[in-house]
Write a sequence for this structure.
């Protein structure tokens, strides 16, 4: 695989940024909770960063993505400003959705970010529409739709894959199989080893990827994007990965410790750092410096969020109608 | 003026708006081969091509979701759900997505979407093909709800709905498609949120929607010698032209709301609520809602007939309110 050094460094920066963002978000969430200010549900992407980064780093700004309830990583990888995201988590007027959406609903259409979604599997048909617009207008934009292993059991999965393939819509369906739908393990959700195998039933390619290997994701998505841009229709990519945190902050986690440790050994960040060292692309000092820059940016984002104003209750009815 | 059917009026609106704006496209089941089960889309595929008239598999969640996704990325979809009863399999796309994406995004997304469907009973199609579900949509912030009763309203309101930048649920009645009415020869639109007094009167206000407008007018005519009935058609439930309804009630002092939908939890209750809250002093008697039975629509004709307001039941309700 021939990847530009700049792209590889950007991947590392994005991996660091997502991880640091999630750490800070969790800290703010806990601080607020202890202070009696409950900030809703927070779904951490920690552990799954390689999927968003590998999928989005090479997308164009005018390509579009549909994110999920666990969407901070997708937003960062698509270019969202962490300051605006952090402000959104705290419900501030300066937030990326002006405090009307919160953690699960971050939007930035000018970045091609069509929002997270609180309804499992709801993004799949919306992605059809984004891809349809590109096809209708004759552009070569693609749409990437993220969803989870849980959502692959929703009816919208079937309808959307069928229609996307039937109409050769330029969409890439990326299943982030993090092994659990809230607390239900994949073995209790579907009887086949791979969600990607279902692609055969829709007449489109299905690919299983190590979702903790950013380069593997990058390669698989790159191929799917090429196929979609060329008018050859959708691809279903299943990224096997794992989330480190419970489903969200308020749900007790009873996962097996050994299982969690096993996945942490496959953490996408040290793996990629080692690759960059082995290939003499970045030095340890450069990596440390990059990590430091990212941490500073995240601290600045948190500070921005904390000093930002809450929305004026008099504006509550704004934004309902166009 | 010219006389056309309600179905033809819808077709003219779609044709004119598709010619006016290439971002407008149609999507739904059997809309190419049949022109939809109402026939309102007949000939449009031949005229505008398969790119703009998209016949889909039986996948309401997919094509309604596709429509929402297309709307937020710049197109103006007009989706057809064959029967309004089928919205249950794509309600998420309407209620959680179309109605909320603009608000949740802090106004960043715009959703110029029309979802057309047909409701109503009277055709012995039983409980899953006969409902009047407007209250579900009117209850959800972020959706406009339109219910045209005449050919002229169908055309003028559909044109406005297509030009509107918000999601609009456009509810037709299956017994109205073949009815004829006069429409202007020249182009016209009817703004959303403008009720119309379909028959002026002095003694009682009857607010009726969709097919019930015609039944209310027939009842008013049959009572013409004994009571002067004013029939008001809101035409759109969201936004609702309360000024027109209030002006009528302030004149007559009496209100009867007639709806085909089940009475319980229906939109008629909301009209009564608002009239009671906003012009209670004008009322000389308690307002009333005459609606459908709180039952699944039965198949057998006499049972079905018993569930839907009729000219005679409307007449009786008017008499009891003015007595």
């Amino acid at each position: 695989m021939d990847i530009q050094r700049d792209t590889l460094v950007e991947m590392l920066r994005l991996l660091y940024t997502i991880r640091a963002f999630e750490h800070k978000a969790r800290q703010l969430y806990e601080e607020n909770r202890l202070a009696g200010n409950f900030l809703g549900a927070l779904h951490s992407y920690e552990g799954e960063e390689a999927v968003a980064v590998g999928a989005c780093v090479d997308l164009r700004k005018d390509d579009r993505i549909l994110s999920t309830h666990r969407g901070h990583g997708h937003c960062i990888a698509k270019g969202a400003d962490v300051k605006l995201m952090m402000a959104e988590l705290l419900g501030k007027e300066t937030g990326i959705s002006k405090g009307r959406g919160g953690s699960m609903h971050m939007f930035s259409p000018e970045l091609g970010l069509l929002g997270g979604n609180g309804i499992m599997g709801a993004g799949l048909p919306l992605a059809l529409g984004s891809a349809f617009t590109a096809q209708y207008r004759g552009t070569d934009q693609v749409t990437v739709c993220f969803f989870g292993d849980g959502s692959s059991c929703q009816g919208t999965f079937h309808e959307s894959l069928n229609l996307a393939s039937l109409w050769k819509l330029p969409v890439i369906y990326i299943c982030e199989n993090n092994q659990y739908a809230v607390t239900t393990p994949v073995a209790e959700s579907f009887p086949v080893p791979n969600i990607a195998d279902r692609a055969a039933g829709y007449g489109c390619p299905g690919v299983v990827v190590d979702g903790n290997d950013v380069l593997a994701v990058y390669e698989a998505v790159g191929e799917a994007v090429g196929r979609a841009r060329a008018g050859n229709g959708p691809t279903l990519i299943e990224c096997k990965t794992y989330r480190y945190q419970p489903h969200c902050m308020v749900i007790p986690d009873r996962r097996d410790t050994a299982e969690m440790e096993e996945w942490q050994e496959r953490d996408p960040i040290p793996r990629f750092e080692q690759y960059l060292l082995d290939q003499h692309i970045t030095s340890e000092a450069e990596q440390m410096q990059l990590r430091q820059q990212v941490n500073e940016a995240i601290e600045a984002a948190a500070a921005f969020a904390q000093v930002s104003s809450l929305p004026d209750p008099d504006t509550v009815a704004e934004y309902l109608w166009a | 003026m010219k006389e056309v059917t309600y179905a033809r009026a819808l077709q003219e609106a779609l044709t004119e708006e598709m010619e006016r704006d290439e971002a407008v496209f149609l999507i739904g089941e059997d809309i190419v081969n049949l022109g939809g089960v109402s026939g309102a889309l007949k000939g449009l595929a031949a005229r505008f091509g398969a790119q703009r008239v998209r016949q889909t598999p039986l996948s309401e969640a997919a094509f309604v979701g596709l429509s929402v996704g297309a709307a937020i990325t710049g197109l103006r979809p007009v989706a057809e759900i064959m029967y309004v009863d089928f919205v249950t399999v794509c309600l998420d796309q309407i209620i959680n997505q179309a109605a909320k994406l603009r608000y949740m995004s802090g106004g960043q997304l715009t959703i110029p979407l029309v979802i057309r469907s047909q409701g109503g009973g009277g055709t012995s199609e039983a409980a899953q093909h006969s409902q009047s579900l407007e209250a579900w949509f009117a209850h959800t912030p972020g959706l406009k709800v339109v219910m045209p009763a005449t050919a002229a309203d169908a055309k003028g309101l559909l044109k406005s709905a297509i030009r509107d930048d918000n999601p609009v649920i456009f509810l037709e009645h299956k017994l109205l498609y073949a009815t004829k009415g006069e429409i202007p020869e020249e182009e016209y639109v009817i703004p959303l949120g403008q009720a119309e007094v379909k028959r002026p009167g002095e003694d009682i206000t009857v607010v009726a929607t969709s097919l019930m407008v015609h039944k209310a007018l027939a009842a008013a005519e049959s009572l013409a010698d004994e009571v002067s009935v004013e029939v008001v058609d809101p035409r759109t439930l969201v936004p609702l032209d309360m000024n027109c309804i209030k002006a009528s009630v302030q004149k007559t002092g009496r209100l009867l709301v007639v709806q085909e939908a089940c009475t319980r939890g229906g939109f008629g209750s909301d009209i009564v609520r608002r009239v009671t809250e906003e012009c209670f002093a004008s009322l000389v008697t308690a307002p009333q809602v005459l609606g459908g039975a709180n039952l699944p629509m039965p198949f057998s004709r006499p049972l079905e007939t018993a569930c839907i307001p009729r000219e005679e039941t409307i007449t009786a309700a008017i008499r009891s309110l003015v007595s």
